[in-house]
Amino acid sequence: MRPSSLLIAVSALTSTLVASLAIEKRHSNAWPEAIRSYYVAAAKSLSSIPASTLASLSPSSCNVASAEMPSISGLPPVTPGLSLYHVAVGRGTQNYTCDIAHPSTAPVAIGASAILYNTTCMSCIAPEALDAIPSSSLLLPTPKENNVLLPAQAYISGHHYFSDLTTPTFNLHTAKTNFGIQFAKVLTKVPVPDDKQQLGQDQSKAVPWLKLSSANAPEGLGSDSSPVKEIYRVNTAGGSPPKTCDASPASFEVQYAAEYWFWG
């Protein structure tokens, strides 16, 4: 990400916040709750940053050592000695299949697909705004990577998908950046407590928070090219399937978003 791009993004965000918060005061019910929460959190985060700091922002100047990853009870901490490598917001779908001949059975998860957006600097300069992104992003359509008119497309850092049914993969290699490719396996899965639930537009509950570790690549895919050892999926929004397959098609997707924290 070019320093100038980051500065433009921060400046644009600041201007948008001023305007939107003014509207918020006059029309408190005009904004969906998730969008209101995002703008309020972003304004709070940015208001504490000196103008001189904003003016000099660049990817290399972000002190990620000060970033604090969200946590919930039951999610193991990062292994001592590891450092924060990358932070991204994933926006996409959780994917499921159903045995339509047995509608009382539960849907089966078959992976996920998401675009990853680089929020590494945001994790340390505007953490409250970052935490508000997953729920607010679900109010927008699933992003299409070929839509170059969307400003957020400039911050794509990669893609999340499954190389097979059991191997979540994080391909952080794009035409502009290369943070490597990481194959992973789930170590810990923690259901989201009620006080942290962020529902999707379809009222789907948030998928569990996860701790993942690096894993061997599936046969034929070579090896990973990333220093990452552990990955956390936190602050999830939406993505969970219905309890049973009743009225569901043989395969379907559920919109979700989450923060992904990479440690190496």
Defining traits:
globular, alpha+beta, 31% strand, 264 residues, 5 helices, disordered N terminus
Helicity level, as a percent range? 10-25%
- What is the residue-mean pLDDT, rounded to a whole number? 81
Order of helices and strands: HHHEEHHEEEEEE
How much beta, percentage-wise?
25-35%
By secondary-structure content and strand pairing, the structural class works out as alpha+beta
**Main sheet: strand order:** 1-2-3-4-5-6-7-8
Secondary structure layout:
Layout: H1 3-26, H2 33-47, H3 51-55, E1 84-97, E2 108-118, H4 122-125, H5 127-137, E3 156-164, E4 167-173, E5 178-190, E6 209-214, E7 230-238, E8 251-263
Antiparallel strand pairs: 1-2, 1-8, 2-3, 3-4, 4-5, 5-6, 6-7, 7-8
Helix pairs in contact: 1-2, 2-5
How would you describe this structure to a colleague?
- This protein is α+β, with helices and mostly antiparallel strands and 264 residues long.
- 22% of the residues lie in helices and 31% in strands.
- The protein is built from five helices and eight strands.
- The chain has helices at 3-26, 33-47, 51-55, 122-125, 127-137; strands spanning 84-97, 108-118, 156-164, 167-173, 178-190, 209-214, 230-238, 251-263.
- It has an eight-stranded antiparallel barrel with strand order 1-2-3-4-5-6-7-8.
- A hairpin with a 2-residue loop joins strand 3 (156-164) and strand 4.
- Helix 1 (3-26) packs across helix 2.
- The two termini are 21 Å apart.
Q: How do you describe this structure in short?
A:
With 264 residues, the chain is an alpha+beta fold.
